[in-house]
Amino acid sequence: MVSDVENPYAPGAGTEPYRLPGRAEAQVWWRRCLTDIEGLGHTTMRGRAFTGVRGVGKTALLRYFEREAGTRGFGVASVQAGGADSVRAYLTDVISGLQRPEPSFTDKHGQIVELGVRVGPVEVGAARDLPDEPPGPPLEIAFFNLISATASAFAARRRGLVVLVDEAQDCDLPSLVSLCRVQHQLRRPAFQLVLAGLPELEDAIDEAITHSDRLFEYRELGNLDRDATREALLEPAAVHGVGWTDDAVDFVIELSEGYPSFVQEYGFAIWEALGSRREIDLDLARAGAEQARLNVARQYRSVWRSVTPAGRDYLTALAAVGGEARTAAVADALGRRPSELTMTLKMLKDRGAVRVPQRGSVAFSRPGMDAWVRDEQG
Ligand SMILES: Nc1ncnc2c1ncn2[C@@H]1O[C@H](COP(=O)(O)OP(=O)(O)OP(=O)(O)O)[C@@H](O)[C@H]1O
Ligand SMILES: [Mg+2]
């Protein structure tokens, strides 16, 4: 029975590998980086920094990169910044582990498996006991040498080393500087670096290094377009022989506005309501969406709590003028000059509470939050 299968909209569930609708450009870029290294022994592609508001799919994309690289025999060091120890220390540990000679393993299998450590508030458990700082060259040089030697070792097998840093806006400055320098100084490297984080990551990188655009291409991840949203809704169900009616899909596309986190929340709740049915129609979609409201509201609340009182005033005014407006109109509503609100607006953007649909305008980054603010905070 359909309702017995694992909910295919649960994060990380469904068919592996995730197809990640709407992210084809990034996926193609990544496969080219890996193919360069397999074919040429190095890549000339710049690294990438993916930015975006919460719930837009940054981690899901890094997971895809991780899986793809791991499957192809690359060394993968993946880290979630913001933990108690420096990113550089964790990476040193993971990368040393990759390099650790394990003759029986390599001899038998001829490849290195993927190794990853997630650091941070949620998954500190993966950290091993770190040895005391070894005597030797200064940290940064040691770090550079380690990456360089590891990448070369992989290059000898026509593979490479990839470093993926999630929540990179929280990366400690020395580690970020070191990573940028490695990216800058390695010549013809069998190495690639990917950073992902909130919009404020761009400033963090600029603070760490000048001319960062020579090292990184910046890509902002946004909401999925209609086609990608439809794919994100239809495919997981189709895998289990369940279809959607046109009006049901359109309903969820409108409701979620292609915001990945909500697409997944609504899909999840609708699937839970499915029972033994084989088709998701408008009634079912409506019922499921109603069930998802609690989780969706939880996200609004967490955004609300993460901003300053001035930020809340701004959000209240933005909600009052319809949820998307010219910044001048929001300033008007607050009885302030736009220039007086620059800092507040920047904070809201940095924290991913609002996005900039076009120059001079501002909108809630989560669909439906304007109504929530009007109802709950007005
Ligand atoms: N391209 C996509 N299509 C459909 N669903 C997606 C896509 N990308 C991500 N998702 C889903 O959206 C949700 C949020 O994704 P993810 O956790 O990767 O976002 P994030 O940007 O890392 O958020 P945060 O900043 O909170 O860490 C997850 O449930 C994920 O499965
Ligand atoms: Mg994430």
From TrEMBL:
Example GO molecular function: ATP binding
InterPro entries, sorted:
AAA_22, P-loop_NTPase
Keyword annotations of the record? ATP-binding, Nucleotide-binding
Q: Please, which domain of life does this record's source organism belong to?
A: Bacteria
Pfam families found in the cross-reference section: AAA_22
Every ORC1/DEAH AAA+ ATPase domain range: 50-204
Q: Is Disulfide bond found in the keyword set?
A: no
Membrane-crossing residue ranges in chain numbering: none
- What's the protein name? ATP-binding protein
Source organism: Microlunatus ginsengisoli
